[in-house]
Specification:
Elements (H helix, E strand, L loop, with lengths): L11 E3 L4 E3 L7 E5 L14 H13 L4 E5 L12 H15 L7 E4 L3 H9 L4 E4 L8 H9 L2 E4 L6
Parallel strand pairs: 3-4, 4-5, 5-6, 6-7
Antiparallel strand pairs: 1-2
């Protein structure tokens, strides 16, 4: 089936306080990995200043949403503690809060990280564990009515 045969495609996605509009096509998600061992950028944007600069460049380049993550999902990566993940993403979110014109997504499977990000304006949760690592994350998402994308990676 080709996309031209799909007649019931979503036109908008309601997030916490805004909508993503797909009337003119998909929204591009700009990825900001705030990890020293990212498999996609090798940790290039791990320092807070570089992560913020990268996020703003992605917005300028046409990203419709920014996804901020503080735990690597590269093959064989080790999980990080709650405190470590918070220390990576919170400073970036604080610097971006109210600065950009596009919504921010938090890439996490931890409810406390999602809550901290929502407190700083995140509109969506991008969760690669199928919402199964931390059962409290569903309650956080429901309470604040944020959008969420539940994916599942092999082995998670």
């Amino acid at each position: 089936m080709t996309s031209s045969k799909i007649t019931d495609a979503a036109k908008t996605w309601q997030l916490r306080s805004c909508q993503l509009n797909f009337e003119n096509g998909p929204a591009i998600m700009g990825i900001v990995n705030v990890t020293p061992d990212s498999f996609s950028d090798g940790g290039e944007f791990f320092p807070v200043d570089r992560a913020v600069e990268h996020a703003l460049r992605l917005e300028d380049a046409g990203a419709g949403i920014l996804d901020i993550g503080g735990e690597s999902t590269r093959p064989y990566s080790s999980p990080v503690s709650l405190d470590q993940e918070l220390s990576r993403v919170v400073p970036v979110l604080e610097r971006l809060s109210g600065r950009g014109a596009i919504p921010i997504s938090i890439d996490t499977s931890k409810a406390a990280v999602a809550q901290a990000a929502i407190d700083l304006g995140a509109e969506k949760n991008n969760n690669i564990t199928g919402l199964k690592d931390d059962p409290e994350i569903v309650a956080v998402e429901d309470k604040w009515q944020v959008g969420f994308c539940a994916m599942l990676i092999r082995g998670a």
